[in-house]
Amino acid sequence: MASAVFADLVDRLGRTRVQVGEEAKRLCGLDPASRDGPVAVVQPISVEQVEHVVKVGRLRHVAVAVRAQLPAAQPDELRDLIVLDASGLQRTPAVDIGRRVVTTGVGVTAAQVDRAARQARLSLRSLSALDGNQGIGVLLARGDPGELGLAQGSLLDDVVGATVVTGSGRVLNLGAADALGMLSWLAQGLGHPLGQLVGSEGRLAVLCEVSLRLQPAPAAAWVALPLPPGRDAVLGACSLARALASARLADTCLVSEQADQQRLDVRLTTWRGDSDLAATADQAQALARSFGVTLGPPQLESRRVRLGLDGGLWPQAVAGAQSIDLQMSWPDVATLLDLTNALYAEAGAPPQRLWALGAETLRLRCWLGGTAAAPAEGTPATKPEHHPLIQRAALLMDAGAVPVGVGSLLRAAARDRMPTNAKVLMAALQRAWDPEGVLATRVGLL
User: Fold this and answer.
1) Which CATH class is domain 2-87?
2) Domain 323-405 in the same topology as domain 219-306
3) Helices in 291-419 by DSSP H: which ranges?
4) Which of 81, 142, 191, 424 matches a 20 to 30 Å C-alpha distance to 148?
5) What is the DSSP secondary structure assignment for residue 274, as one 8-state letter?
């Protein structure tokens, strides 16, 4: 069977884009000497090649697992499967200035998409600060709203079209030009199929290309506020950030708690040009003084950033550290702060978190293992699934947290709390798009 699958894939994709045996195990993060591994790892570069991979899986009765980044966080899930690495779908971002839309391959990084838009004086509504080097398809397929610009709304609201390959091997174009100017799916109730695909993490169809609505690029400056340790400082920073976002003085407010240091970073924005940034900064300082604090001096984003040639003053991702992302409403902030504090205490380590604060909702990223740094040499690493934040995930959801980018760590807990109508709709879409379960791997649908 494996040799037949290999021959079918090489016939269309070429030998360099199909890996088997020890190399396939290594790419997935498995021990090359282990007994079992993936049937093959493939990296298609076009919609047609994705279509061929899915059809091979269907013909040979081998499930296809879609991954946008290898090695995988949970490589044991990839045994006896065809692993489709979507990072090769690198269609160059094409910006339609008149319609304010960008169409791009899902393997193109979110930062590259935003930089291409900025060269036309446009930008994405929101962007991931910590995962800007991941493909735009990763952020969309896991329902990631992004941290940068969150106060102005979610990136997910700007999806107006997509090209997908279903589990039956059909190419579908979802969305249309007439979706511009309105939400691409209903925010409540039964959504558009495109909305159900986004967030399904590749288990309904393979997302190949996506079209996103753009907005004018703002003038921006960053200000910072060091915070003293303690619960009250975090809650006070959250209150100030909400006020800044509600007054539309800032589109990004990040509260970071790492290495026993706490700070608030705010990106002040205006769409009236650089000359208005000074007035915006003065208003922000006045608002901060009403909270009894003083923000640091504003640091303007450079001309190269505004031209899309550099990244901004964004936080860097913690290398090699896994995390979980949660979304919540403002009334639940204090409860979830106390609950995550207790779970970190149970793990025996200080909290390592990042709060992204919007006017309506918040995004919380919690690093697992308790510390953002790599474990000391000779110290055994704790498996992420054994961390109290994972073991007690049901408590987080009971307190009002909604997981973002569920993945395998939180999938069981999230599925238990899905409403019946959502489960029925997802099952109906699976029957329509993937009736033979080619993409529904052993971990099942969310």
Assistant:
1) alpha beta
2) yes
3) 303-306, 333-347, 388-391, 393-398, 407-416
4) 191
5) G
CATH topology of domain 219-306: Alpha-Beta Plaits (3.30.70)
- Edge to edge, what strands does the sheet with 40-42 contain? 18-19, 40-42, 82-85, 64-67
**Chain centre distance of CA 430:** 23
Structure tokens at 213: 């609505």
Q: What is the CA radius of gyration of the chain?
A: 22
Domain 94-216: which topology? Answer: 3.30.465
Query: For residue 289, what is the enclosing H or E element?
Result: helix 277-290
Rounded distance between C-alpha atoms, residue 436 and residue 154, angstroms: 34
* CA geometry: angle 26, 32, 35, nearest 5 deg: 130
Residue 231 CA to residue 339 CA, distance in Å, equals 12
- Which pTM value belongs to this model? 0.81
Alpha helices (H) along 44-125: 47-60, 110-118
Task: Decide if domain 323-405 falls under CATH 3.30.70.
Answer: yes
Domain boundaries, the chain: 2-87, 94-216, 219-306, 323-405
- Residues 415-433 as b/e (b if ≥16 CB within 10 A, e otherwise) read eeeeeeeeeebbeebbeeb
Length of the chain (residues): 446
